[in-house]
Amino acid sequence: MTTYPRYTSRDLELLPDVEGTRYEIIDGDLFVSKQPSLEHQYVCLVIGTALFTWSRATGQGRPYTAPGLVFDGDDDVAPDVVWISHQRLRTGRDAAGHLRVGPELAVEVVSPGAANERRDREFKLKLYSRQGVREYWIVDWQQRMVQVYRRASLALALVATLWDGDMLTSPLLPEFGLAVSDLWEPPEA
Q1: Where do the H-state alpha helices sit in the chain?
Q2: Rounded to two decimals, what is the model's pTM?
Q3: Rounded CA gap, 152 and 7, in Å?
Q4: In contact, 46 and 183? CB cutoff 8 Å
Q5: I need a labelling partner for 137 at 20 to 30 A (CA). Which of 46, 48, 74, 184 fits?
Q6: Neighbouring-strand partners of residue 75
Q7: Can you tell me the distance from the alpha carbon of 54 to that of 81, in angstroms, rounded to the nearest whole number?
Q8: φ, ψ at 130 (rounded to 5°)
């Protein structure tokens, strides 16, 4: 039986700093991905902007793009977007500026490739469930679809699959609404 090394957050410090490369660790497994596409980044910008506008209006929390979530030595990830309440932020940030607690909302925009999809749809779903994330959005810009997972007891469960024509809302964010069709980059003029 072949055993593989379990990676830790300390190991990330030893990896080469290669521009356009992102390293994440989930359950001690190392995941390496390349710089996201413009379409991916556009979706992150739209979601981050909508959450920022809502947060400014309500004063209930803050969104962050690609923050470091360092839960344990072998769970160190950077979701595309998160939203965290002021209360959790006060107690969940370390001296290095990383979050040590699950944010209320985590958002992953799926990058092309089976390994990327599996990381977001399986491994991160399990990780966010364990870490108390209350809601998880998986955005697939290629299929123009958003899957919404919400906490049901101890785990995140799929509660909605949204398409163009639907509104993205959340009980975590009263009066927040974002048209799914607004997530996609419009064709060039």
Answers
A1: 9-14, 38-58, 86-92, 114-118, 124-130
A2: 0.88
A3: 30
A4: yes
A5: 74
A6: 72
A7: 14
A8: -65, -30
